[in-house]
Structures are given as C-alpha cells and as structure tokens.
Design goal:
The complex is a heterodimer of chains A (about 220) and B (about 600).
Chain A: E1 9-17, H1 23-32, E2 45-55, E3 58-67, H2 74-81, E4 86-92, H3 96-100, H4 102-113, E5 119-125, H5 137-147, E6 150-153, H6 162-178, E7 191-193, H7 195-200
Parallel strand pairs in A: 1-3, 1-4, 4-5, 5-6
Antiparallel strand pairs in A: 1-7, 2-3
Chain B: E1 3-6, E2 16-20, H1 34-39, E3 44-48, H2 52-68, H3 74-99, H4 107-112, E4 117-131, E5 137-141, E6 149-153, E7 158-168, E8 174-184, E9 194-195, E10 197-203, E11 209-216, E12 239-249, E13 256-267, H5 273-288, E14 294-304, E15 316-323, H6 324-337, H7 369-384, H8 393-398, H9 406-414, H10 420-431, H11 438-445, H12 453-456, H13 461-476, H14 486-494, H15 499-511, H16 517-521, H17 526-542, H18 544-553, H19 562-566, H20 575-588
Parallel strand pairs in B: 6-13
Antiparallel strand pairs in B: 1-2, 2-3, 4-5, 4-7, 4-14, 7-11, 8-9, 8-12, 10-11, 12-13, 14-15
Helix pairs in contact in B: 2-3, 9-20, 10-13, 10-15, 11-13, 13-14, 13-15, 14-15, 17-18
Classes of the chains: A alpha/beta (about 220), B alpha+beta (about 600).
C-alpha cells in the first residue's frame, strides 16, 4: 500500500505571473529536473504533479497548475484560482516591470479565491543572471513582508532554491491544516486527502498527525 | 629496426610478419614482397602467428617503443614508425576482415590506402569514497540500477575513471591527457564544463589502452554550480551528466575532446533507513550480478595533412568525432522524421525524458514520380478553376501533400489566392500601424520553432517575418489581437511561402467561415471549451481504455489540450506530422 504513488494529502497550487518570468521553467526544474533555454510559451493552462514530504512520513501530492502569462488568458486561468489552496506569485528579478505587476496578480488571486483561505508565496526567478538584476532581494522581501506572505528567490537554470520554494509553501499549507485554519471541504479541490489516509478515516474532515497536536473540534465550524 | 612488414592477406603468408634489427641499413633492399623477405632471411626475424590480435598488440608495442626513443635522428625514427604503422594497419584490416563476414574487399589494397576511420572504445566508471569497518579509506565503484545510470551519494568525494582504447584504424598514439571535465546535463557548452583534478594518467600495462583518473569533490567550490549532481534527484527522475576527456594524440595538433554522456541519480546519504537498506541491497546484489561496464564508442575520422610551420609535427587533422550515443540519437531523429514510417512507434522509451523543442524534425522533400504525376494532373485542372476542388483530391491530400508542393496546395485549399493585390496592399498598410501586443509578440519570437533552421537565429530573417505577420494580424483583428499560440501556426505557414502569401492564408484560416480559427482565440475562450468537450467525447468513443484511465486519475482535457488546439497541433510534434495535420485540416476543417 505504501508505494510511491500513495500520499496523505493533495494540495492544488497555481502558478501565476507575467509572460516570460519563468513559470514553466520553475515547474520543469522542480518536477523533471531539467532546464530549457526557450521553452514554448504556455497557452491556456498546463499541468504538473510531484509528491513531496512535508515532514518525515507525511507525503503531499502537489498538483501544480501552470498558467499563461498573457493578459488575455486571464479569463481561462481565473477559473483555476477557486480550487487552489496555494498561489505562487512569480516575477523575474531581471525585469522590474514584472515585479510591479505582482500586486495585480495578488489582488486578482485574492478576489477569486474568496471565500476560501489560501497561502501565497512570492518567488523571484533567474538569480543566476546576477549581473542583470533589476529587483533587489530587499525590495522583494519588503513587498512580501508588507503583504504578509513568504518570499524566496530562485534559479531554475541552476536549480537554486527551486526545491525549497515548493517545500516552503507545502509546509506552510500543511501547518495551517494542522492548526485548523484550512480544512478539507467537499466541493473544493484545494486540499484533498490522499488514498492512503482516505482508507483509514473515510469521512472525517481531517486526521492530523496524531503526535503533534490534539485535534481541534472547531475546525468544522466554518 | 629499419624494416617491418607483414605478409599480404589472402596468401599463405597472411599469418607471417617480419622485421629486421640490422643496423647496416643502407645496403638492404627494402621490399614488402614476402619472397624477398626469405632471401634476406639472415637479417630478418620472421614470425608466424595465427592470432591476428596478438600480432596487432606486438606491433603496437613496437610502435610505442619507437616513439619513446628520443635520441634517434627524428627523420629515421619517423620513417620506421610509419613502416610499423603500415604493418599495424594491415593487421587491423585483417582483423576487420575476420570479424566482418562480408569483408570482400581485399586488404592488400587497404594496406596501401589510408582510410581515416578510427574507432575508440571507452570504459567509464565512477568510484566513491568509503570508509570500511577498519577505518580505511577506499574508493569503490558506485552501484548502477541500470547500465547507464550511476547512483551517486550526495557530498561524497568521487573518482572519475576513464579508459580509452583504440579498437580500429591506423594506430594513434595517445601522448597524454590534457584535461578531464565534468558538466551537468548533456549537449553542454564548453563553458559549462568544470575541470577535475587529475589524479593519474598513463598507458595501461598491456599498452593498448590509456587510463585517466580524476578527482571530483562535490563540496569544493569549483563544483558548487553543478547543483543537479549534488542534490537529491526526484523520485523516478534521472539527471544527465557529461564527462569530457581532452586527449593529446601524436600527430594531431589540437587536443581531441571525447564526450561521454551518462545519467545519474543522486541519493541523500544516511537520511532514512530505507535508503540505507537499499544501498546495502545494491551492494549485495552487485557482487552477484555481473555488472556490465559502462562503455561508449567513438568514431573518429581523420585526414592526412602536411605539417605547417606552426605545427611541424602535424600529420592528421580530425574531420569528425562522434560517440555512438550521439550517432544513435541522430539516426533516431532522422527515423522519427522520415515520412515513410509514421505509424511505427519506437520501442524503447529511453529518451522519453527528452524535452521536445518546437519545430524539430526533418521533412523529406523526396517524392515518388507516380505521386508527383497524379498531383500534376490535379493541379493542372485546379489552376484553371480555383473555386472547384478537383475530384480525387481528398485521396491525395490524405496521403500527404508532397513537401515541394505544399506552399501552392495549401493556398489552393484555403482559396487564399483571390484579391491578391488588394490583400498585399492591406498587409503593407497594416505594417505601418502600431500594435498594442508588440512586447508579447517579441517575447514569443525566440520561443517559436527554435529547433527550425529558419527561425532559430535571433533577429534572423525567419523571426523578422514571424514578427511582421503576427503584428499585422494583431492590428487587423481588433477583437482577437495577438493570442499566444498563433505564432506557431504562422511559423508553419511561413516555412512554405513568402510573407504576403502567408498573410493571406493566415487571414483565411482565421476569418473564413470554414476554418474560423479566430473564434477559438477570442477573449472568453468559449470555443476552446467546446473543443475540450468534443475531444472528451471522442476519447470516450474511440479510446475507451484511455477514457477510463483518465477518469480514474481525474485527468481532464483542459489539463493537457489547450496547447494542442491553440497551436493547431504545431508545437509538440515533429514537423512531418505537423505538416500532415495542416494538410488535413485545410482540406477537412475541424
């Protein structure tokens, strides 16, 4: 039963940001460990999956929705926010304009995701091109702090902090789940229980790792 | 040694070889004829040996011995060396004859002729530092779950061992190793390669092979950029690594670089117990299992050149050097793109992790004379009356339009050749206007068909046409503007016709009620959703197994098919297929 396809939870994440900031490259680097200089532009949406361990013994399947950066595709991508528990807001550290657009991506995501709760992560890309940098780490950090979200800078080309970025957001979601601030709900695909745990506790909302915290009764209230 | 020769093949003397050690060289008549050899027997050593391989080895050691003597007058030494070389070459060609059943060519002629084909075999291994129970430091070969995949442990110091052995052709003498390099990935640029510290290099005891050992410490600063090679590899994934071997060969002025491509899986060490047990499992099994060595073969072609003043020792120049892996990949790509075998799927999925670059694949321009005749007949009728499709056309289109005729046939199928002058004027006018999508169009230029010769050069003529066309249409159609995906359709057309004609065909595709592609690109993408629905129904009807499987996994069409439709299937398939789809689409519509 405990094979490589089994997992405890499934989190659905959406990756958004301007065109050519490197959304698809980040996902390829994370899911396949490869990098290509000029990948096809994503038209509409694309889809990736990878299982990560958020803590020893707890496996989470990340369903990752890659979206087109072109403005006109927002009517398609908008539909994917609702069922996402996490949003990766991507900008290119060598392109200041892409950074200024993060606010609008954040606002759109917040508006679409309501009433569900979700976790945001601000991701700066292409830090291997240090000489071309236009957005400083401090600026990124300040923006994230102001909006009270997490922040990380990555390079898909040299695979720097790519792993960390996804683990970071997955852990954050998992923590909120164990704290009862996010829960599995029918009719919402943001978080689902995996086949492994679904066998043991069929219809209960969530069974959180037994040794950490007592289960909160309040978690079904909303 | 002033004389060295061997009996010609296909003669009773084929197993004989001889040389003389006499120093009174001036009086001796050098003749390669076996009869003469017997006449001057008192000066000569003649050997008989049935094993050609052994002769090869003995002659090779002579050759090497001579190269090492430096106190000889250079001209003499070189002449002797070349005599021995000829003898070795003859041996090698006999060896080849023994192995190849259809070796009908007389090796006597080969003996005189220089063919520059040379083959090297290379053994490659990675060893890792281990501390055994007694506290001793040893390097052991790492385990390999598959023949070409190395299991590497994170942060462990490693030794990279390469053995190079010539197995065919004029013997080349390896002088030294100039450098051993490592890179993550494959098809790497020279600048991405990292030099390893050389531990040892030199000829093996049997003198037939050259051994190079390098030292790789993943933790040292020099290797900090090779992240994929020292970070746990995701489950089921493999990372590529490339090892470069720069070899200095006598007679070739520049070092020759041999590139070996392998895969690796990086494992975090001692992190969880199951990885450890897996390691033990691997070790136990490897001692029972006969582990085949990782080998690679290189085909090198050299040509003889005359020495220049800057390179007085130059005898050969390398024309090409290709590893078996590269050669196989090349032929696979050709096979994949050959138009004749569209139904044949390649059996092994070894390359399934390959990233597909849009615009790849070769399209054959060749065409059967019969097929061409049929097309000619049809085109004659058609050119007289554009409005009516000649009978028998459907059959021909379904078999694929010959590449040479595609430009014309596509335009005829779409009926885009009407109002030519007016449309060209429109196009030129549109080019003068500004487009609000300029930035995004430019962003897509490098990403559209980068694998195709015409479009791969940044700022090249192909990209320029693509830019102008994308821009002109975005101005023409206010509502649709420029939609990502359309650049692939434009590029497909541009391969076959000049810009103006391509613009006319694009307008037909977008606006003509038969095709009406613009509906699909409209802002709400409702038309695209409808296509997903249709695709889903078609899968259910025609591929019930896949439908059931997708249903179980909750895979829905919108997760994978938007690029298919929005690029008209042009981005993810080899070009011969892309063009066939376009043939059929233009004839039959969606």
């Amino acid at each position: 039963m405990d094979n490589m396809y089994s997992y405890d939870y499934q989190f659905r994440l959406i990756v958004v940001g301007d065109s050519t900031v490197g959304k698809s490259s980040l996902l390829r680097s994370f899911c396949d460990g490869v990098f290509s200089q000029d990948p096809d532009p994503t038209v509409g949406v694309d889809f990736n999956v990878r299982i990560v361990e958020v803590k020893p013994g707890v496996k989470v399947k990340l369903q990752l929705w890659d979206t087109a950066g072109q403005e006109r595709f927002r009517s398609i991508t908008r539909a994917y926010y609702r069922n996402s528990v996490g949003v990766l807001l991507i900008y290119d550290t060598t392109n200041y304009v892409s950074f200024t657009h993060v606010t609008s991506w954040l606002n759109e995501a917040r508006a679409q995701i309501q009433p569900y709760h979700s976790v945001f992560l601000l991701v700066g890309t292409k830090i291997d091109r240090e000489s071309e940098r236009q957005v400083t780490t401090e600026e990124g950090k300040a923006f994230a702090d102001f909006h009270n979200i997490s922040f990380i800078e990555t390079s898909s080309k040299s695979s720097l902090y790519v792993q960390e970025a996804f683990t970071m957001i997955a852990r954050e979601i998992y923590d909120m789940l164990t704290e009862g601030r996010i829960h599995v709900q029918s009719g919402w695909d943001g978080v689902k229980t995996g086949p492994k745990s679904a066998n043991s506790n069929q219809s209960q909302p969530i069974e959180i790792a037994q040794n950490v915290q007592p289960r909160r009764n309040g978690c079904c209230s909303s | 040694i002033i004389f060295c020769a061997r009996g010609p093949s296909n003669s009773p003397l084929a197993c004989c070889w001889a040389f003389t050690t006499s120093r009174r060289s001036t009086s001796i008549n050098q003749n390669l004829n076996g009869k003469t050899q017997q006449e001057i027997l008192y000066q000569c050593q003649i050997f008989r040996c049935e094993n050609q391989d052994a002769i090869y080895r003995i002659l090779l050691s002579f050759s090497n011995a001579f190269r090492r003597t430096t106190n000889n007058p250079p001209s003499n030494a070189r002449r002797t060396t070349s005599l021995i070389s000829h003898a070795i070459q003859a041996t090698v060609s006999q060896l080849q004859q023994q192995t190849s059943l259809n070796g009908s060519q007389s090796s006597a002629t080969q003996q005189q002729m220089f063919d520059g084909a040379i083959k090297f075999r290379c053994f490659f291994d990675i060893k890792e530092e281990n501390i055994d129970s007694k506290g001793n430091l040893t390097f052991n070969s790492v385990s390999r779950p598959e023949k070409n995949v190395f299991n590497l442990r994170k942060n462990h110091r490693k030794s990279v061992n390469v053995i190079l052995q010539q197995i065919r052709g004029t013997p080349m003498n390896i002088d030294r190793c100039f450098g051993l390099l490592l890179a993550q990935g494959r098809n790497v640029r020279a600048s991405d390669m990292q030099l390893l510290d050389l531990e040892t290099m030199g000829k093996a005891d049997d003198n037939r092979s050259y051994v190079v050992k390098g030292y790789w410490n993943p933790l040292s600063r020099a290797f900090k950029d090779l992240i994929h090679l020292n970070e746990e590899t995701p489950k089921g994934a493999r990372v590529f690594l490339t090892v470069g071997l720069d070899i200095v060969i006598n007679g070739i002025s520049e070092p020759v670089r041999f590139l070996i491509e392998a895969k690796a899986r990086i494992i975090e060490t001692g992190r969880s117990s199951d990885t450890a047990s897996q390691d033990i499992g691997d070790t136990i099994w490897s001692s029972f299992k006969k582990v085949t060595q990782f080998t690679e073969e290189f085909d090198m072609i050299v040509k003889q050149v005359s020495p220049t003043s800057s390179h007085p020792d130059q005898i050969y120049e390398v024309v090409s050097l290709e590893s078996k892996t590269e050669a196989e990949r090349r032929s696979k790509l050709q096979r994949l793109s050959s138009t004749t075998r569209t139904n044949k799927t390649t059996g092994d999925d070894d390359e399934s992790d390959e990233m597909i670059i849009s615009g790849f694949g070769h399209v054959s321009k060749e065409c059967d004379a019969d097929v061409l005749n049929n097309w000619n007949e049809i085109l004659m009728k058609w050119r007289k009356n554009y409005s009516e499709r000649p009978s028998g056309l459907q059959n021909l289109v379904r078999k694929g339009v010959p590449e040479a005729l595609r430009g014309e046939v596509w335009q005829l199928l779409a009926g885009s050749v009407t109002n030519e002058k007016e449309m060209i004027d429109t196009y030129r006018l549109l080019l003068t206007k500004e487009s609000s999508s300029d930035r995004i169009i430019i962003n897509d230029l490098n990403r559209t068909f980068p694998a195709h010769e015409y479009f791969k050069e940044q700022g090249g003529i192909g990209q320029e046409s693509l830019y102008k066309l994308s821009r002109a249409y975005s101005v023409r159609d206010d509502e649709v503007g420029y939609c990502q995906g359309v650049s692939f359709v434009i590029a497909t057309i541009l391969i076959h016709m000049p810009e103006e004609q391509a613009f006319m065909l694009l307008c037909k595709l977008m606006e003509d009620e038969r095709y009406l592609l613009r509906e699909m690109y409209k802002a709400n993408f409702e038309n695209l959703q409808m296509k997903f629905y249709q695709l889903n129904c078609l899968i259910e009807e025609h591929l019930p197994d896949i439908y059931a499987h997708f249903y179980d996994l909750k895979v829905e069409c919108h997760m994978f098919a938007s690029q298919w439709f929005l690029t008209l299937f042009t981005a993810k398939f080899p070009l011969y297929l892309v063009f066939r789809i376009m043939d059929i689409f233009l004839y039959e519509v969606f």
